[in-house]
């Protein structure tokens, strides 16, 4: 009887602990954001609102120009550029609207499912963009190193297949990241030291040893960023070596195009390599690199590709004249 009574007490204690653990399961995360000062948050709200408007208008303009101009749409480079702008437009919508809303309130929270959704779309679009930039480097390599066969090699069917492969690669990468996170138990602290949900910060809140998970994160996100970055650097190194034997006029135009691409590549890959290739530790500058990756780069891409590109400027002028002629048919 004493043994039965002892076992009953033991099971009641275990059930009580299990109930307590279920009661303390994390259902939402608190985002610490970029600042805790109300005045600074209002100032940041205005700054990032201007950034977001520039992102939407700039990338939307490129998408519209590429779709409206038949010559640009038939060019593989501008076909890929249109997809790049579309990805930047979507990528900014994953984090910036939530951040702008949080600037106007003291409590910054995100539900568990909302956090998973943010991780999924962030990595889906981010990885797709990395693969697309690698494809764009291959396109420039063929155009500069094998110009006579460029249109034959980079035909429309191959371009469609490459873009589809980029989206598929992004999906596989992002779903792997979500699987890593969704299997973790969260029962303790729920404060994320960032303005959006991402894998490095979330897995540190798990109620278990996350050594294996962090190694998997590095092998998935960190190595992916590093390998793509090294492939890009190698391809552009080959292009620059090839350009040494080209005529002055063609060389300057190709160098201008490569400089634009390398600028975009650096702005995207350097923050990603810094954030995802070093597990088990975090630095105060992580938020700055996160801002560059999610806000600054999508805003600068349209400026880099339009201000330094004569074809885009010509297409913009043609579209503006067409718009004026449509709106004011009897003018002049």
TrEMBL record:
Signal peptide (from-to): none
Domain of life: Eukaryota
Protein name from the UniProt record: Olfactory receptor
Localization per record: Cell membrane; Membrane
Regions annotated as coiled coil: none
GO cellular component: plasma membrane
Organism: Ictidomys tridecemlineatus (Thirteen-lined ground squirrel)
Membrane-spanning parts: 42-66, 78-97, 117-138, 158-182, 223-243, 255-276, 288-307
Membrane topology designation: Multi-pass membrane protein
A Pfam family the protein falls into: 7tm_4
Record's keyword terms, sorted: Cell membrane, G-protein coupled receptor, Membrane, Olfaction, Receptor, Sensory transduction, Transducer, Transmembrane, Transmembrane helix
Family statement: Belongs to the G-protein coupled receptor 1 family.
GO molecular function: G protein-coupled receptor activity; olfactory receptor activity
Ranges where the G-protein coupled receptors family 1 profile domain occurs: 58-305
């Amino acid at each position: 009887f004493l043994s039965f009574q002892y076992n009953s007490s033991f099971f009641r204690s275990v059930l009580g602990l299990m109930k307590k653990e279920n009661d303390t399961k994390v259902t939402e995360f608190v985002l610490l954001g970029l600042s805790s000062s109300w005045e600074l948050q209002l100032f940041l709200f205005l700054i990032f609102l201007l950034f977001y408007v520039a992102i939407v208008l700039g990338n939307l303009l490129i998408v519209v120009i590429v779709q409206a101009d038949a010559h640009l749409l038939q060019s593989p480079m501008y076909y890929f550029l249109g997809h790049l702008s579309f990805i930047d437009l979507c990528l900014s919508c994953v984090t910036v609207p939530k951040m702008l809303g949080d600037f106007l309130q003291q409590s910054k929270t995100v539900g568990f499912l909302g956090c998973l959704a943010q991780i999924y779309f962030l990595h889906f679009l981010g990885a797709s963009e990395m693969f697309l930039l690698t494809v764009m480097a291959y396109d420039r390599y063929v155009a500069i190193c094998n110009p006579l066969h460029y249109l034959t090699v980079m035909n429309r069917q191959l371009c469609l297949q490459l873009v589809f492969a980029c989206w598929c690669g992004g999906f596989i990468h992002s779903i792997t990241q979500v699987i890593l996170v969704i299997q973790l138990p969260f029962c303790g602290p729920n404060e994320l030291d960032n303005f959006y949900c991402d894998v490095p910060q979330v897995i540190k809140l798990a109620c278990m040893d996350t050594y294996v998970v962090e190694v998997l994160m590095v092998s998935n996100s960190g190595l992916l960023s590093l390998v793509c970055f090294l492939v890009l650097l190698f391809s552009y190194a080959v292009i620059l070596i090839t350009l040494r034997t080209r005529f002055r006029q063609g060389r300057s135009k190709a160098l201008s195009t490569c400089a634009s691409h390398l600028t975009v590549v650096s702005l995207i890959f350097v923050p990603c390599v810094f954030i995802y290739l070093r597990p088990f530790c975090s630095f105060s500058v992580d938020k700055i690199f996160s801002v560059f990756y999610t806000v600054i780069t999508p805003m600068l891409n349209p400026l880099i590709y339009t201000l330094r590109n004569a074809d885009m400027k010509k297409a913009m002028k043609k579209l503006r004249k067409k718009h004026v002629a449509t709106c004011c048919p009897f003018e002049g």
